[in-house]
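Researcher: Next sequence.
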Amino acid sequence: MSAATPVLTGLMQHDVPLTIGSLLRRMRTVNATSEVVGYGATGSTRATFLEVAERADRLGGALRALGVAEGDRVATLAWNAQEHLEAYVAIPSLGAVLHTVNLRMTPDQMTYVINHGAARILIVHRSLLPLLEAVADGLETLEHLVLVGPGPEPGDALARFTQHDYEEALAAATPIAAWPDVDDRAGAALCYTSGTTGNPKGVLYSHRSSVLHAMAAGMADTLAVTSGDRVLPIVPMFHANAWGLPYAAALVGASLVFVGHDMSPATISGAIAAERVTIAAGVPTIWMDLLRYAQEHDVDVSSLRFAPCGGAAVPRALFEGFEQTLGAEIVHAWGMTETSPLGAVARVPDDVTGEERWSLKLSQGRIAPMVEARLIDDDGAEVPWDGESSGELQVRGPWIASGYYLDEQASADAIDDGWLRTGDIATIDERGYLRLTDRAKDIIKSGGEWISSVELEGELLAHPAVAEAAVVAAPHERWTERPLACVVLAPGAEVTPAELRTFLAGRVAKWWVPEFFTFIDEVPKTSVGKFDKKVLRARLADGDLDVAVCEEAIATA
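Model: Next structure:
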């Protein structure tokens, strides 16, 4: 610095780290009277944010007594509930990493995720112990189970783990009196993708990224979470941190309503009515079920300001049905585990009406503040934002992943000069509204969860009667998309859809098993011999495929 360069002072009084601990402090002070409700058809529980913060102090003390140190991963296998929220704030505030385990994963995926995260401690709801028992033999680092809620006690398969009752552990713990100072760029939470090919990949969110994401969720043009809201995150807390809504609520003081494992439309509509929920977030399947339920039952969702919906494309019929039947608005949003997940939200200006309004509502949304986006064509050139030119969507920003946890190859494949390659083909118009036009890897998204067409094809090919198999997405009223298995039989072979379903049931997650099948002479191929799935999708759209529907219960193989 030269002598002529002025030294500016007073520009920043104090650089306060952006940590989950700062959210915990707001829960016990500014937002102390906000509440957490556990809604159930037979009764509800409720606690203030101050009470949750005090229980988090005890949970921190209990974890410290078990030897949890800075950087350690503490896993959870749990529903959306108050205890899970306590883990959300206590574990990162201790300097450890909250490692949520997706209970919908296959046993092999769950084993991999728990081992890869190397957690010694797992906070698990008793109702989910059968899932854990099924993978117990393969768990390499786990030592302690902290058991939450009612349900069966652990069986012999879990006997080698030291077991602690959650409430007893909190009662016996010395509360944390002074939480440690934590670097806001340190890891706070670890979520794994549900997997496309190969093993799931870990995304490590920092304290700073989580707090900035929570701030963004409070912006009027995104999720608009305010202190006056009562938020129902139906999206699971094991999936991209429930879209960041628990942390957003902790920051601004919005009350939280949880429905636990019961995501039936009767319970969801009951919670909205009883607790006067103003924001309820879920995947299209949830809202389709609620709409059908409302067409046959008297429901009151008049308190809803809007319902954020993401995870899969939302059909216009669902938007219209919600507005006409329920008098409520669905707002489309786009994101991924790698984007924390807030990437775009389809807010429509009040002065936009008619078909232009529908065009914007049906888009994936306007690129969120602080998120940068670009479209790259096959030659690596950036294409314009004109609503017509398409390319691979790439994004970057303060809460966008810069790589995958302990996976150098996957990180190298996913990052292009600092930009996250989403694998989606898209257009963006002059106003920044995003529209996805295709999926580069032909992933099927059913009920908000990924299904790998490549893995399904591999399992189908394992059947002796199958010579070739290609799987594409078929539109579905309830699940948005379901896999359609396009099968070429081996010469002289015969097999029925029901037999293929039984065969697959023991090899993939049950909800991956297709109910739609078509038998074709050959799979269309490109000039280099790759499966040309766009031809199959076009034939499906044109009605040129003879599709058999097999929805009966899967037989035991």
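Model: The mean pLDDT is 92. The chain has two domains: 24-332, 444-549.
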